[in-house]
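Example 4.3 (complexes with small molecules)
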Amino acid sequence: MAEKGTISIHTENIFPIIKKFLYSDHEIFLRELVSNAVDATQKLKRLSAIGEYKGEVGEDLKVKVSVDKEARKIVISDRGIGMTAEEIKKYINQIAFSGATEFVEKYKDKPDANQIIGQFGLGFYSAFMVAETVEIDTKSFKEGTEAARWICDGSTEFEITASEKTERGTDIILNVAADSDEFLEPSRLRTILTKYCKFLPVEVEFEGEVINNPNPIWTKQPSELTDEDYTKFYSELYPFSEPPLFWIHLNVDYPFNLTGILYFPKIKNEFEFTKNKIQLYSKQVFITDEVKDVVPEFLMLLHGVIDSPDIPLNVSRSFLQADSNVKKINTYITKKVADKLNEIFKKDRAGYEAKWNDINVFVKYGMLSDEKFYDKAKDFGLLQNIDGKFFTMEEYKTFVQANQTAKDGNQVWIYATDEEKQHAFIEAAQNRSYDVLKLDSVIDSHFIGLLEQKVEKTTLKRVDSETIDKLIEKDETKDMVLSEDEKTKLKEIFEKAIDNKNMMVSIEPLSPEDQPVIITMPEFMRRMKDMAKTGGGGMMFMGNMPDSYNVSVNGNHPIIQRILKAREESKEKIARQAFDLALLSQNLLSGAALTAFVKRSVELIEKE
Ligand SMILES: Nc1ncnc2c1ncn2[C@@H]1O[C@H](COP(=O)(O)OP(=O)(O)OP(=O)(O)O)[C@@H](O)[C@H]1O
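Answer. The structure with adenosine-5'-triphosphate bound is encoded below.
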């Protein structure tokens, strides 16, 4: 007895609309159909466990996917609860199709429809994205019910007939449409299956092979797992990657449901940073690896999986950000990550320090971008000096208190960004027993600003931003052997020799052991220029300003007396030579100036 009918929906033409909307994401049909099959299988297992289903469950509960290229068919079969004809009418004709209608009604006028689509599980209806006609051949687990066959071409017309099917379960048969040939390729189907179904909770078989791991470790209790289980799972997620540094097993059921494992990666190169991403699952079905709004931005540097049925997947981005569950998840994950780092730091400081190189970007990024994370991380965020010693911020304050407090009572923390280039300055600082921090990564330029903001009465200065006496101004007066007249004269000589308006000459009472000329770029100026380079802080105009330097001439250096006493025509020459040497020591001498310097040097040697 065949029955024909009309599906009760208002929009006659939802099919073309959905097909158009879902264009880029056609492949999700397989995820939807396989997860329906898995759901039906799990329901059967549950009914059997609680005694509502008394029949044989059978050994083989696998979901099977097969493709017949010649016949242009894809079949998804399960041994789950199946459906009666009445249930097909209820669940497929009414529910599945009305869901699709609602979707179209809601989103057809929205400009960001394409974005929404990717996150929207269209369920059974998505089969029509790739199939001309879809058949359901199904037999319910309920005793005494008849098998039924439903066929539909995606329009609102359908047909139900009796079926010959004798075994419990459902076959979904897709007659693949002419424009969807790609899905008849087994390799394409396999790729889709491994992407979305890799951790589905029921075995899924394709070409005689089970393609999934139905019991991924995030569904287990941490107490059941060894370190090896975690590292093995990591390489299952990201084959050929370096083993992770450590991990956090997430497990909450109130006020939202979430499980997962977050790994701190050991990154070999930038490429891996962006290639391996956190994967988002909902009940073991892969949803996306675009987790942007679900985890705080700084945590996107981590790897792993998050599984939560409570993350709304069928809503737009802006809604997701405002969603209270998502906010709670964000807060929870941030807290867990901070607690874990703190725990490792407390338990095994040496081990933590050894990993600092790999995790410092992550921790600093977190401190910069998340106030709550900062509050926790201030106790385990580390500073490293150029001797390789580590300090917490609090420890460092104590460490430099005696020697690096300026006369205004503020501490000066001195840092180097390039040990090679700033070598002469570092040496000068160390001669004063000043400590020099190593802050040389890209994120450090931002981190320095944060430290100044957060650590009270402290400024940070790059080791080459002032002459050593001015770096930390103390209450000491330095004597100068020169008279006022001599100073004026000397300044003139140097200004003429240098002949550059962006070099600010001053005569300073440095120690006779210091260099005769020292070139520095003031901290403020350099930071502004750095900021302009990275395009931040509205400082673009600074980028166009010429570099301007302070030239400190050491009035107490023996060579100064030589300049003052030299014949008129030699004065400028010696001054220029001393200035060039200072440029040279900072790698600032090049081109014509370098050629002139070499020539002059040769002449000077010849004279000796
Ligand atoms: N293989 C199957 N075996 C038994 N029932 C099924 C099967 N596939 C679908 N159904 C029934 O049809 C209903 C509609 O399926 P559909 O995929 O459209 O929506 P859903 O699974 O409820 O939700 P979602 O939109 O998250 O996929 C299901 O709830 C289920 O009752």
